[in-house]
Amino acid sequence: MTEVPSAEAALRFTVTDDDTAAAVGSGSLPVLGTPRLLAWCEAATCAAIEPSLADGETSVGTRVQLEHLAPSPVGQAVEVTARLAYADGRLRRFSVAARNVGPDGVGGLVGSGEVTRVVVDGERFLARISDA
Description:
alpha+beta, Thiol Ester Dehydrase, Chain A, five-stranded antiparallel beta sheet, 3 helices, 5 strands, globular, FlK-like_dom, Thioesterase, HotDog_dom_sf
């Protein structure tokens, strides 16, 4: 196992009508949908890993474990953080957390989990799928 380098990112989003469970097909309520929460968590991991990538490299998500714990209504600001927890070769595992943001700062936990990404050469990756 290689030493875990420091990599983290925090992104802030505001829940819109397009982000709701009703809009993304994961329910009927006008609150943040789990698929959108997952996309925001992946965006945070991409932001965290980006500075460490060499020219031509990118990362692909390979595994997700996510608990969606609390609702976020339309208009709610949500801060999503990703922190590198484990690195081994091309594999990077991130701890992710999302919290509702209120007037007093970052507050209640909306969701948490892990997102695993693998660093790949972008051109070689795309060449593999076009040959299939």
